[in-house]
Amino acid sequence: MAINDDKGLMVAVQPVNVGYVPRHAAPSSRIRSTHSGKLRRRVIGSACLIALAGAGAGVAALGEHDAVRSCAAQPKPDCGRSGSPAGTLPTGPVLQVRVESAVSLGLRGPTAVAVAGGHLWITNSLADSVTELDWRTGAHAVVRSAASYRFSAPGAIAVGHDQLWVANVRGNSITELDSTSGAVIRTIDGHSFLARPSALALSGTHLWVANAASNSIAEINADNGALVKLFRGRWYGFNDPLALAVSHQRLWVANADGDSVTEMSATTGAWIATLSGPAFGLRDPVTVVAGPGRLWVGSEAGDSITQIDTATGKLVSVLAGRRYGLAHPAALALAGRQLWVANSLGNSVAEIDAATGRPTRFLAGSRYAFDRPAGIAVYEGTIWITNLGGASATELLPTVTARPGAGESASPPSQPAPVARR
Fold it and tell me: If you count Cβ atoms within 10 Å of the first and of the last residue's Cβ in the chain, which end, N or C, has fewer?
């Protein structure tokens, strides 16, 4: 799984978005009355405005001459699609770009994305399905539907132990699959302890679930799907918990409406601390990712990333300002010392040196086809971004590992590969 073990050793990749489903993708009519300067928005948000893209897959080589702009300075829905260069935002080395559309992958409301069992998995929150394909080639796409898998507004993903768990936001359930064969292992129906499950995190045999509707955290036995314990109460400080991460034998919970992070024991579930206050810069925190000794928290309303020492719980730094190009960071992924940020409002992706906090790359522009990016994952040098607004997925590859023929054309194929449905 894309997590760090309790000894602080980093697994190959940690796509934090596997534990986060964007509020605007969730099929709910509940209205969030925001505070502390947050924007008032419906949970269903822009999901109803999604238009499915009809193009196939296109590839182009992009580099330092691509137009980029500071979406943090121009927070508009179409920011990042065109415009003059930002000048101060770095673009980094040349990348290969491939855009997979709704036609080629059966995407509709794509949110979480993760790699497991040699496959890339994408949840389709508006189609009650999960798309599976070969992560190396993008071929053999299979759309696993609600009829066989009981998906109901699938969002967050957790992977590990050759298994994959999918949180069904509307269904108040979790579907567990074999990540190699795709076969269903079980469906965890938890109407008594699952209430709009919006985030998942796996730690050993503990599967942790954040319930946004009941302000609670459920601990489930990952071996048999049984409930271990339900944690709730004012002393935990849960308030619209939307993201989870595990590091240093601690479970970290991002409370979007509470502008806080709750620290718990990942072994017993005991409360340790609730981190909040102006110094932390937490404003609508919706995404977290953990690395060796560090936790990064993305705040949508604050256009910022807060870095916390996971051994002490102390603040390390708050990354914000035009130099980062952050605009509603919705998803984070950590690969080595590289922190990748998907900006949902900026239609952009930023790369930050996790050790120094220095911005190293900023990607935006029409060639990337970023459109309300909701999820991000990194695996063996390849980056995938799901585009909630464009019903597509953008794949970024280093030039040296580009697929055969990847640099030949930027035009979509006339005959997209058929998608198998099960």
Answer: C
**pLDDT at position 104:** 80
Q: Rounded to an integer, what distance in angstroms lies between the CA atom of residue 311 and that of residue 413? A: 50
Query: Would you place residue 44 in the very low, low, confident or very high pLDDT band (cuts 50, 70, 90)?
Result: very low
Q: Please, are residues 152 and 190 in contact by the beta-carbon 8 Å criterion?
A: no
Give the number of other CB atoms < 10 A from CB of residue 75: 16
What the block records as the tokens of 195 is: 């209430």
Bigger pLDDT: 324 or 415? 324
Tens-place pLDDT, residues 7-29: 332 222 333 445 445 554 544 43
Q: Which of 152, 174, 143 is nearest to 18 (CA)?
A: 174
* Res 419: pLDDT: 59
The residue whose two tokens read 């997925």 is 393
User: Would the pLDDT of 1 be above 80?
Assistant: no
| 310 touches 8 (CB < 8 A) | no
- Alpha carbon of residue 64 to chain centroid: 26
Q: Given its phi and psi angles, is residue 111 left (phi above 0), alpha (psi -120 to 50 degrees) or beta?
A: alpha
Nearest alpha carbon to residue 251 among 6, 1, 2: 6
Q: Which candidate, 315, 311, 336, 298, places its Cα nearest to that of 247? A: 311
Per this entry, what is the length of the chain? 422
191-217 pLDDT per residue, tens: 899 999 999 999 999 999 999 999 999
Per-residue pLDDT, 354? 95
Share of the chain above pLDDT 70, in %: 73
Alpha-carbon distance of 122 to 401, in angstroms, equals 22
With H, G, I as helix, E, B as strand and everything else as coil, classify residue 368: helix
87 exposed, middle or buried (CB, 10 Å; 0-12, 13-18, 19+)? exposed
The two three-digit tokens of residue 369, written as one number: 């086809």
User: In this structure, how many other beta carbons lie within 10 angstroms of the beta carbon of residue 396?
Assistant: 20
- The sign of the dihedral angle between the CA atoms of 256, 301, 328, 310 is negative
**How many Cα atoms occupy the beta-carbon half-sphere of 177 within 13 Å?**
26
| Ramachandran area for residue 311 (φ above 0: left; ψ -120 to 50: alpha; else beta) | alpha
Cβ atoms within 10 Å of 323's Cβ, excluding its own = 16
Handedness of CA 314, 316, 322, 326 (dihedral sign): negative
Q: At 386, phi and psi to the nearest 5? A: -90, 140
Q: Tell me the three state secondary structure of residue 382.
A: strand
CA atoms within 13 A on the CB side of 72: 25
Considering the chain, what is the average pLDDT of its residues? 79
Q: SS in 3 state form for 170-193? A: CCCEEEEEECCCCCEEEEEECCCC
